[in-house]
Design goal:
alpha/beta, Rossmann fold, three-stranded antiparallel sheet, 9 helices, globular, binds 2'-deoxycytidine-5'-monophosphate
Length: 228
Amino acid sequence: MKGDLIIAIDGFSSTGKSSMSKIIAKNLNYTHIDSGAMYRAVTLYAFQKGFINNKKIDVNSLIDHLIDIKISFKKNDQTLKNHTYLNGIDVEQEIRSMEISNMVSPISEIPAVRDYCVHLQQEMGKNGGIVMDGRDIGTTVFPNADIKIFITASPEIRAKRRFLEYQQQGKKISMYEVLKNVKERDYIDSNRDYSPLRKADDAIEVDNSELNLDQTVDKVMSLIKELK
Ligand code: DC
């Protein structure tokens, strides 16, 4: 297989897109880019600067400061995993909190935020050899991607996966709250006017409700080999 393909993996939240994309990129010796981490980093920045108060976003101030937001991915020496950096600081843990999850969809609805992140994603992936996961990679970021996969699973199964992750991290969040967040994000992500979450016409859909991570990776790897 060529070493410079662009592989787009889109789908709903908590389908395990990032975990599978990471493994697939490693198998192919490609770079993995978690595009959702960028929207999460912008959301964290907005909190840090006080641009989010009582769930209200000061959109104009955030837009004025987009130029000051530098997002990068770098291997962490301790975990040996790729971490997200916001203006040079490792924010990998912080961006996964429930506080960020609750505000990331409204932040990623802002057209200027999307333009900023999409441009960054296109720069990071332009030479190929990447597996990028997100919501609009196959439709907007790389409409000419070599391979497009769209992952789905039922909201209840996705919420259960996220709930177990929070439990393992010792975080006390109810299943009700997690399911509510999953459904709210599905709704906002799919119904925003600008670059909504949708399956590209030429993407292959994989429902992993009944598949674990290894089985999903096997399925997607065989699709990639079949298609290329
Ligand atoms: O993949 P994730 O759950 O970490 O993504 C967090 C949010 O970022 C998601 O609710 C919507 C937004 N997002 C987006 O709008 N476009 C992308 N390509 C990736 C994520």
